[in-house]
Write a structure and sequence with these properties.
The protein is built from eight helices and no strands. With 232 residues, it is an all-alpha fold.
């Protein structure tokens, strides 16, 4: 008799389902991000737009923030296309540099807006924390790739993009919270701003840990499976 090792790798069907799930998630993310960009940038097309409001005297900072934010949201989504990244490593590095420059431009604009904002301290603090988390995750990812730690770089840039999408998540969560019956207030807005990047980071970490445990379980099962000689 010949021992037959059990299959520990995912079946073709499972891999197909996983790929379709990731593709669906990426398309959903792209659609939501595009809708956010169109809505957010459309209202600032004309200088006499009432949307400027208190931003009129600070529109230079606002334009910096919007321009950099547009670059990061669009380029960040492209970086998750694994096949494109592997086939075009030079283009991936170039787009990554442009992404970081866009992030610095957006963060500069955000700093100016926070410093000149008449909003309550709780809201300004929440915005500042978001910007700090954005910069710290990017810096950690940059240092990792400079040292050749590709996996660590990918993990931290995934976290960075989760923070990049904080304005998108905030824009979705605020109307939903108000629709639930809560009245908008500085405390509510500040809380949603904190949650708009902390919750996605927790989700990313949870998914990463689950995937790691699944890989470890498969590796352990494979190591324990030892084919034995034919019994005659």
């Amino acid at each position: 008799m010949t021992g037959i090792a059990p299959r520990t790798d995912a079946s073709p069907r499972s891999r197909l389902v996983l790929r379709l799930a990731w593709a669906g998630l990426w398309l959903l993310l792209g659609f939501v991000s595009l809708e956010f960009l169109l809505a957010a940038y459309d209202k600032y097309r004309h200088l006499d737009s009432p949307a400027y409001g208190m931003f009129m005297t600070r529109r230079g900072w606002l334009w910096l923030h919007l321009a950099g934010g547009l670059t990061t949201v669009l380029l960040g989504a492209v970086q998750f296309l694994t096949r494109w990244r592997r086939r075009n490593p030079r283009l991936h590095r170039l787009s990554g540099r442009v992404y970081l420059v866009g992030m610095l431009v957006a963060a500069t604009g955000a700093t100016g807006l926070i410093a000149t904002s008449p909003a309550p301290f709780a809201i300004r603090l929440a915005f500042a924390a978001t910007a700090l988390a954005w910069l710290c995750t990017a810096l950690t990812g940059l240092l990792a790739i400079r040292r050749g730690a590709v996996d660590r770089h990918q993990r931290w840039m995934t976290r960075n993009y989760a923070v990049t999408l904080a304005p998108v998540i905030f824009r979705l969560s605020l109307p939903a919270t108000i629709a639930s019956g809560l009245m908008p207030s500085p405390t509510l807005i500040a809380t949603l701003l904190w949650c708009s990047w902390i919750v996605p980071l927790l989700v990313c970490e949870g998914v990463r840990r689950l995937a790691g445990r699944r890989r470890d379980s498969r590796a352990t099962s494979s190591a324990r499976t030892v084919p034995f000689a034919d019994a005659r």
